[in-house]
Amino acid sequence: MHSKAIVRRPGRNFANGITTTNLGKPVYEKALEQHAAYCDALKRCGVELIILEADERYPDGCFVEDTAIVNGKVAVITHPGAASRRGEEVEIARVISGYRKTETIAFPGTLEGGDILKVENHYFIGLSGRTNKEGADQLAAILSKYGFTSSEIKVEAGLHLKSDIAYLGKGNFISTPAFSKMIYPANTIILDQDECYSANCLLVNDILLIPKGFPESKTKIADLGYNIIELEMSEFRKMDGGLTCLSLLF
């Protein structure tokens, strides 16, 4: 169960962040509305929010997931693979150190939380353009110290591992076709190509947050018996962001 979440409000220069999409520039006011709705959803899931104000040194700073990996025993502070994002982790480390013992990924290792998929007590570490082998090895060693196992997965396309696959709890996964056979294929919802964005879902206690606008994905998830909250994510999608990106749950 998660009792707390760290979130950071988008800054006015949010549109200056990194993106690979061709969906246009995000509208700041609309992003604020969607972020507020996201925060309200977390509260509905029983989570107490730790809300950080925007830091306009870092246009991508609202995507706090990338700055740390947190579980019941430790918080691992990352070293982001994108140079423009290095420094975002400093305030996160200060805040999270009040709740967890911290460990740190050190250069030349790079690691971002979007590449880390926790499945019960095992971690899948995505090797991507943002997370390198050195960072993955450092994380694996840290996790082992605290009794967790891990393995690596090559991210051939897409920004992060969790852009393509999510663990829904109860042994179930949701995945784009590219990742559908890489973990536990028998228990995986395989998405249609035009609904791949909905692979990034977020399980918060007994409620599953899903992006709005993907009816086939919603039906498949609902058929498995999940309690669902749909959230509009259009402005964050424009910046390669998803539901998991916007919080650090612990």
In short:
The chain is built from five helices and 15 strands. It is α/β, with parallel strands linked by helices.
Throw out a few tags for this protein.
250 residues, L-arginine/glycine Amidinotransferase, Chain A, 3-stranded mixed sheet, 15 strands, globular
How would you portray this structure in words?
- The protein is an alpha/beta fold and 250 residues long.
- It has a 3-stranded mixed sheet with strand order 2-1-15, covered by helices on one side. A 3-stranded mixed sheet has the order 3-4-5, with helices on one face.
- It is 20% helix and 25% strand.
- The chain has helices spanning 28-44, 88-96, 133-145, 215-222, 234-237; strands spanning 4-8, 48-52, 68-70, 75-77, 102-104, 116-119, 122-127, 149-154, 165-169, 172-175, 188-190, 202-204, 207-211, 227-231, 248-249.
- The chain has 5 helices and 15 strands.
- The protein has a single domain (4-249), classed as L-arginine/glycine Amidinotransferase, Chain A.
- The longest helix has 17 residues, at 28-44.
- The chain is globular, with a radius of gyration of 17 Å.
- A hairpin with a 2-residue loop joins strand 6 and strand 7.
